[in-house]
Each structure stands twice: as structure tokens, then as C-alpha cells.
Task: structure prediction
Amino acid sequence: MAFDLQKIRAQFPILERQVNGHPLCYLDNAATTFSPQPVLDSYLEFETQYRANVARGVHQLAQEATEAYEQARTRVARYLNASSESEVVFTSGTTASMNLLAFGLAERVSAGDEVLVSTLEHHSNFLPWQRLCETRGAKLKLIPVKENAELDFAQLDALVTQRTRIIALAQASNVTGAMHDLAPIRHAADRVGALVVVDGAQAVSHGPVDLQQLGADFYAFSGHKCFGPTGVGVLWGRAHLLADLPAWLVGGGMVERVTATHARYLDSSARLEAGTPPVAQAIGLGVALDWLMGLPWPEIRAHEARLAQLLHTGLQRIDGLRLFGPSTPARLPIFSFDIDGCHPHDLCQVADEFGVALRGGHHCAQPLMDALGVTATTRASAALFNSEAEIEQLLTALVRAIEVLR
Amino acid sequence: MSGLYQEDIKALAQLELAKELSGGVDREFTLDNPLCGDRVRVQLQLVGAEVGQAVLQVKGCILCRASANLIQTRIKGQDLPGVQQIADSFAEMLKGMEGASWPPQGWTALETFRPVGAHKSRHQCVLLPFKAVIQALTQEEATDSE
Result:
């Protein structure tokens, strides 16, 4: 399939919207992306043709729903290049995945042990570990950031010690768009026998993931951030590590046998999917990832790099703008910035008047905001369906916003 | 444009007011808006149960700063029930449900914020300084929330 931006955009009906009399210019993809028509069609098909609970009934609709749900699991495994679909657990999102993991790994962390995260983590990959350390008497250590919000990996070897049990890191920052080289993390973890947990929520929409190369022991992401539905996400784990995780939620669908006094849980990863799962959502996620797999990724990556270049260049030309993150445009097209005399909330409000959707706030990364000495930033985050014209629309809106606000 | 950033609101936000109390601090409180990062730090000097002097420092948007500055210029002589009543009245106005007694006596300048009513996501920006003052007045001693 050749890259045709207009054909891709045509698959997103919401892009036809007008906002405040202007064409919608949606640049809040780090918060949530849109879903293409095939994903939208999958909901309707499920609801009108084979809505049923999964892995429970023998009637025709139940069989079809179960097959579609498991096919989604296979599609996730394929997108991640996982060894087996049995390594894929459906959750409600990255937050649930990380909480499940922190709960499940608790026995590996004792008083005096250490968990290493970074200062720029999203709260979903920060708070579960902070709470784990509090409850286990362990120490939470942070890879610091430099003044421009880049992680200071020079301190990694000093931070990882014989007491380090878990290293949890974002594959890409939701604030700065920086993609992190995980090889040093894997190397440092192997030196001391620590597990590597990777938050893939931001990276996963920017191309297929290769878990055979990434160096992660666990990987989590959310469906709604990769063109899929809300309410569904994935926790991937190496088979032998998943097998050791205790059940987090207990209830229907994850037991071999329950008596009045005892329960025996399933050995498989189904043990970690208690209750009726988000069936339609998981199916939609599978469709989204299949759709992504079919895209011409070399061209898509070049397109996103072009968008990042335009953002980097255009933002730096604005007087009084401080850009956070890598000094080169070689990053995901996610840019956070601060403009003298213009609070992010106000900037976003005025930008909205011109149809431009941005995000102002702390981006669920308050430790990073503290490290940068700000309470909030403005963030523009592009996706593969954004155009160069939309970047120009953003830059024009920012200039206009500054005129209004200063 | 929506009228949110009209000159009256911007002028309020840009007022140069005292940044420190002249005298001791009787009550102090810092309140954050967890959604957007606006932060209001309130310091109060009391005369009995009433505010004698107030300083509100804001790291936040224009709307939050404007509201905080208005409070700083008007709040002298108010006690906790009085501030609560003004805040409640203000919140009702923003929802388009103000009563017959609107605006509160001495607070007609709150009408400046009427355009904020149409933007529900911004109500908290202008109410946050009031909430910070209320929290400060309910403290028994001068303590910083952080």
C-alpha cells in the first residue's frame, strides 16, 4: 500500500468536523487518537451480529465472539512480534496493566530493595511503583532529567545496584516525544538480575513493536492511544514471568474450581483476565493493530519525521518559547513547550477558537513538571493522519494566541 | 473570539499587587487544580475572625490570576461564612443560575467573569482562588499545605 495521506485521512470520519468555524486540527494524539472506519465498523458488527460473552457459552454467538476475541489476541501478538498470543493479557489500559504488574511483582521486592523509574514517567508508570515501594519498604529511585527534559542516562550505572529489582521506563515520553534507547537499560538490568518493564503507550501508535529486540520483560499499552477503542489495553509478559504473577482481580472466568472454602485459579494468562473482558473493545483493538500493520511504515515514519521537523522549526521561531525535550527533531512528533507570559491553559483555549486541539497541563507527569520548574506546559502531539497544513494551522493559532494573551 | 480574554479580565490579571503581607501571617494555604496545574498560595492576616489583609500568589492561567487579584483587592473584612457565600454565589452565576441577590454586595466586579460561564472546563480556574481562601480560613494555625 503506497502512502496517501488523503486516503488515510478519509478513513477517519471525525476529521471532517469543524470546530468554532474552523477545520478541526487535532493535535492531542498523545492523550487519545481517533479510530479509523474499520475499527468503528467492528463495534457495529459485534453489537449487531455476534454480541455474546466469551469463553463461557457453546451457542453460535458465543463461539463467534470467543473466536473474534482470541483473534484479537493473536493480532496483538503479531503487532508486538511476541513469541505467543498466550503472552498477551487484555486489561482496561496501561494504568491497569501497570497496577496488575506492581501487585503481581510485590513478592520480588523486599525491604531495602530498589525500584528504578524515571522522572519523566506518566503517573501510570510511576504511582504503581511508588506505592509498591511504600508498602514493601523499598526505595524508589529516579533517573533524573537534564534541564531540557532529556533523561540523564549517564547516571544509570550508578543508579542500578545489586538491590535493584525492577526498572520501569517509558519507551517514549508523553511530554517530550523522546524515544528511549532501552539497550543500556537491558544491559544494566541483566547485570543485577532486575526486570525491565516498558510503558509502550506513546510508542505503539508509531509503528509495529519488536519485543524480540526491545529488551523488555513486560510491556504495556492502551488501545485508545493506537487508534483503537477506549477501555482496553494490553499487558505483555515473557511466558515464564506471566506464569508467576498471582491473580490481581478474582472472579469469573479465571478459575479451574471454586468450592465454599477454596479456589484453584487457571495456570494460563486467563488467570489475569477476571470477569467479562472488554470484548468489543479488544476486537476493535485487534482491528486497529491489523490496520496499522498494513500501512507503509517507511513512508509513514518519513511523514511523521517531517511533521516533527516542521513543529521543531516552527515552534523555535516563536519569541519567548521554551521547548522541552531532545534538541534535535529526531523524536516522535510530540512537543511540549512554555511561552513567556502565556499560560498553557490560556494558549489552548485560544487555539481552540481556531479549531486547534492542544493539551495544557501537567500531562500526568507532575514529577517532571517539578523537575522543570513549571506547573504546566502546552503540548502538541501529531499522529500519522496529521498534515503539514495542520502544523501551519497550529503555528498560526499560536501566534494569534500570543497576540491575544500578552 | 469567545470574550474570555477581554480587556477587563486581562487588566485584572495584570494588576500589580502586594506580594507579601505587611506583618505576620495568621493563615496560609496552597491549593492546586489537579487537572491543569494552576496553583494558588494564600496568606492571610486576621482581625478576629475577619480577613484584615490577604496576599494571593498564583502560578496559573489569566483567569485564575484575575480572580485571585480581585479577591486580594476586595476581601478585607470578610469572614469564612462571608467568603463561602460569595464563592457559592459566584459558582451559581457561572452555571447561569444566579439568584436575585446577585451580585454579592461589594463584588459587582465578579460580573467580569460572566463569559467564563460558557466554558465549564474553566470554572475551576476562577473558583480556585476562592477555594484556597476558604481552606486557609478553615485552618487552625498557619500551615502550608505542601
In short: The longest strand of chain B covers residues 50-59. The beta strands of chain B are 27-32, 39-47, 50-59. The two ends of chain B are 38 Å apart (CA to CA). The interface with chain A takes residues 1-2, 4-5, 10, 32, 35-39, 59-63, 119, 122, 125 of chain B (CB under 8 Å).
